[in-house]
Amino acid sequence: MCKDIVKLASRSCLLTLLLLGFASAQAQEMQPEPAIQAPLADESLLLDVIEYNDSGYVAVGARGHVLLSEDGRQWKQAGNVPLQATLTRATHFGRRLWAVGHDASIISSMDGGETWFIQYRDPEGDDLAPPEAQGPLLDVLFLNPNEGIAIGAYGRYMTTDDGGIHWNPGRIADRVASEAIDWEAMARRQGGYETLPEDFEMPGGSSLLDMLDKGCYQYNECHLNAILRLSDGRLMIAAERGYGFRSEDDGKTWEAFRFPYPGSMFGLVKRGGCVIAFGLRGHIQRSCDFGTTWEAIETGSEQTLMGGDVDAQGRVFLVGAGATRITIGPNGEIESEADLLGSDYAAVVVGGDEMILVGDNGVRHD
C-alpha cells in the first residue's frame, strides 16, 4: 500500500484517528445509531471547522459530533445527526452543508446544520472492489449546488450531480489519463532525478530507480487527503507518498504530478495565484504554476501540519501536532510556535481578528 505514516511519539493520537483508524466500530453496524447529545462535545476530538455564510461556524469530529456557533465562543451541538461515525471534513455551498467521514459516510443539512440526513454510507466497502475498499472519506468539495466531489482512503473518489441524492463511487485511477504514473516524465518535467531519493523504497521493497526502470508505478491504493478548487475549472488533490493530482475540467479528468517531498501532504490552501501544500514532518511546498514546479518553504519545524487557512491580508495560517502554529506573511515572513505538551490541532479558520482552532481537545478561540 502507499503508506508513509511515521511514529510521532506521544503526539500520535490525532494522526492515528485521521490515518489509521479507518475500520471504525461503526463499520460493524448495518443501521447506524444517531449521535448522542454530549455536554462536553466542544471539548472532544474535532477534526474540521468552517465558516458558514459569514454568520457563524460549523465544526465536526468524533462520534458524529456536529457543533454550531454564531461567534466562535459559544457552541451548541446539532440537534439531529443520524450517525456516530467520526466526521473528518465539512463544506457548504450557499446554505447547504455537507460532512464526510468514517464508514464512507456523507451527511447533509439544509437548515444551517441543526438537522442532518444520510446521503451515502458504505461501512463494509461493498461499493468498491478490493483492495482495501473500506475506509473513511477525508474531504468534500461542491462546485455548485448540484455537482460535488468526495475523496478518501485507498484512492476513493466519488461524484454527484444532483446535490448528493445519488453518489457515484469510484477511484481516482478511473479518472487519470493513464493507469500508471510515468515517474521518468515527471522527474524530467520537474527538474531531474535529484529530487527523488535513490534509496526511497516503494511498496514491495523496490527502490525508486528500479521502479523508474520499469517506467511507471500504480497508485490505486493511495489515500486522497485534501481537495482544493482554484479557478477556471482547475482543481488539485494532495495525497500520500508525494502524490498529487490536478484537473483543468472540474474533475472530469485528472493528471498525476509529484511533490518534491515524497511524503504525505494533508492540506492545500490558495494564496493569490499560488497553492501551498503542507503535511508530514512540517513540510510546506508552494507552486505558482499549478503544480508543474514546487519550492520548499523552510520553517524549522518538523511537526506534522494538518490544517490551514488564509486571511484577507494574504497571511497563511497552518496548524498541526504539538500545538504548532505557523504564519507565513504576504512577503514570506515566517512566525512559528509550538508546545510539544499541548494539543494537536487539526484545522483552523480565520476571519478578521478571529481565529478558531479545533483538535484533540475540542475548540479553541483566539
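the 2nd protein, sequnce then structure:
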Amino acid sequence: MACGKHRAGGSVTSGPINAEAQALKIAVDIASAWHKDGGPGRTDVPMGVVATIAAAGLLVDDRSRSAEGMISASPDDFVEIARRVWAVTLTRRPDLTLWVHPLLRWLFANLDDPTRQRIRRTADAALNAGALKLVATERRFDCDLFGPVLGALRSRTATKVNAQMYTPGDIACALTAVALDDLKAGQSFCDDTVGTGGLFRAAAQIIRSRGLDPADMLWFGADTDELAVAAAAVNSLLWGLGSGVILYVGDTLAHPRWFEEARRGRAEFLKQVDGLTAGVHALDFIKRL
C-alpha cells in the first residue's frame, strides 16, 4: 500500500494529492479571513481555532453536536464551545496539555469584540472550506493541515505558503521510507526539526501499511517554534500516534540530550496533573503555564 493511502472496509480513501490540496485551500482561506481588515497579527489565535475544529472532529461521540454548534454559534458561544471541546480532549489526554497550551491561551484572554468577530470569521472560513470533514475522516492521515495553515498565516500574502511551513507529503514519504526498514512495536522515531510533524505522518502511514499500529511506537520531536510543536501535538491526535509522543521546545544543538530532558519534563508534568478527573481542571491548569 502506497504511503498516503489508508484502506478501511475494503475501500481506499482519497489519496495524498487531494487531501493535501484541500489542506492548502483551507490554509489560504483561513489566512485570508484572519488577516482581513488588518488587526493584531497574532498567529496563535487562528491556529488555536483550527486546533479546536480538529479536536472537535475527533470527538466521535459528540462530533455532530459540536459541529452543529460551531456552525451556528455566536462569537461568544464559539469560545464556550471551544472550551468544552478542550475540556473533554485534555481529560482524555492530559499529557498533551504540556505542548498544546500555546494554542489555547486565547480561551482565557479578555477578547475584545473585533477579535471575537475575527475568530468567528476564521472559524467560518475553515468550516466552509471543509476542515471539519477533513479531520473527522481517515483522510486526515493523508495530509498535514497545520503546516500549510501556519505557513499561510505567517506569509506576507495569504495566497502564498512560505518554505517554513512543512515537508510536502510525497517528499516526507520518500525520506521516511528510506529510513524505515525493520519495523517492530516499541520502535522509536526521532525528528529534531519536527515542525508540525510531517515526517511523523509519513512514518505513521508506512507503519500502517505494514500492518502495525503507530500508537505502539515512541515518537520524539523537537523544534524551536512553540506553535509548530503545539500543532505537532494536535497532529499526533489526528494521526493516531498514541500516548508515546514526547515533544520538546528548544535548541537541540545547545541541548544534545534534549530527548532525555523532554522525557523527564513530561514525567514531572504528569505528576502535577495526576488525579485530574474533570476537563475544567485541565483547562484551569493551562492558565498557570
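The chain is about 55% helix and 5% strand. The two ends are 42 Å apart (CA to CA).
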